[in-house]
Amino acid sequence: METKPKTNEENEPAKSESVIVMKNLYKAFGDNQILEDFSLSVQREESVVVLGKSGAGKSVLIKCIIGLLTPDKGSIEVLGKEVTGLDEDGLAEARKKIGFLFQANAIYDSMTVRENLEFPLRRHWTDLDEPKVLKMVEEALENVGLAHTMDMMPAELSGGMLKRVALARTLILKPEIILYDEPTTGLDPITSKEIDQLILTLQKKLKTSSIVISHDMSCVKTIADRVVILLDGKCYADGTYEELESSEDPKINQFFQSLLV
Amino acid sequence: MSVISSVRDFLDETGQISRFAGRFFSHGLKPKFEIKELLAQCYVIGYKSFPLVGLTGFIMGLVLTMQLRPSLVTYGVQSELPVMVGIAIVREIGPIITALIFAGKIASSIGAELGSMKVTEQIDSMEVSGTNPFKYLVATRVIATSLMLPLLTLLADAIALFGAYIGVNIKSVTNIKFFFIQVFESLSYSDIIPAVIKTVFFGFAVGIIGCYKGFNSTKGTQGVGRSANSAVVLSSVLIFVLDLLTVQLTNLLGFN
Q1: What is the pLDDT of residue A258?
Q2: Is residue B117 part of a domain?
Q3: Would you call B229 an interface residue with chain A, using a CB distance cutoff of 8 Å?
Q4: Would you call B248 an interface residue with chain A, using a CB distance cutoff of 8 Å?
Q5: Structural domain span for residue B207
Q6: Rounded CA gap, B249 and B252, in Å?
Q7: Is residue B177 included in any domain, yes or no?
Q8: Would B9 be classed as within a structural domain?
Q9: For chain B, does the N or the C end have fewer beta carbons within 10 angstroms?
Q10: Which of B44, B119, B121 to mutate to test the interface with A (most CBs of A within 10 A)?
Q11: Is residue B54 domain-resident?
Q12: How far apart are CA A86 and CA A182, in angstroms?
């Protein structure tokens, strides 16, 4: 299949199958236009990796989806509901179905691992009783192979373990969609590969859809069902890893080669 | 040109702090309240500050008495030493010194804690977890500082008066009961109540400045350090400004 830069219209698959639909997004910080007429949709149980240069607006994009940032223009539908312009309660409701793995893990360093995992649970589902909460925490930690760290403080854990705890915290609410912001940044290649495999395994097990921001090509190759290149605020190209890798478009080509280096 | 720019920056920051404080009243005081976190903050901010505040209070009372004695001896009114020390401590020195010590300890700690949470995306993570970070982090801390500083000031005053009693006894002999009777006979509610009320404002200033600086921290670890530092400087200056204003106000209301 030939890969070529795609227009926004071509990036819009059938709405009925889509869990995330972003249409004509614009976002600027002062004079710096980050997103400009960006459109993208993500299908159910699909993993879309977004590639782009530093400062291209990849993190801004996923922060707009979860409501941490508000786009200047455009619409974002998550599971059929428009999320732009939602009030605090509406956003809290939408966020129950969306997990977010932060680049810096964002583990609360004043809390134990257990308290970190309990925090979103108790906030989103206030009617859960103590044994149920404990069971869910244990299950989430077992999923990432860290059941023994339950009463440890974050400072006692390595970078890879912190990433796993952050992943467990993201998954504990059993979200339908997960947004990963550079999940392997700062980790050594072996740990990165372990995290990639863990993400892949859990995605299949929990049947989640995801958008992954990454610079790590082994991560992209392992996780991506589809790769999107964000360039000049727009969705410049969209295809499978193999399609984009073999593309003759000089910008895509240059992009892949520089990332591989 | 740089003077104009500095004035503009100052006004800009003043405006932003006022808006931040306004947000506290418009959003932070609405239900649902974070009671558990508020109690935890009262413990950290109040109970854990007590040893430092108590020690400085004791030294303050002792030193003030020792410094005042020679002057009073010169005029032959050394018997009035408990009265002078009592009024000075309760009306002014107790509240202001306690507030400054409190600002040094708490504003820097809040600024650094929230700053660090901000740069490591913990505040964003909290928001994603269905929690309003302003209510959870800011409102609880500001309420805790506003409630705890008056209590700490009262305790510091009591300990400072005890220090003053020891100071008086260094060069003369006074019965503790007689000392405190002399102190309290010279004090009235109009000395104590305005002094306590102003510490609520001092506590509010420490909390709001610490949280504002932490919440708006940028540029990594350097930014966190800068937030902690500027939180102490700004809240200390604000304490003096508020003190000046409350003294004028109590004068106008006829408490002096």
Answers
A1: 65
A2: yes
A3: no
A4: no
A5: 21-252
A6: 5
A7: yes
A8: no
A9: N
A10: B121
A11: yes
A12: 26
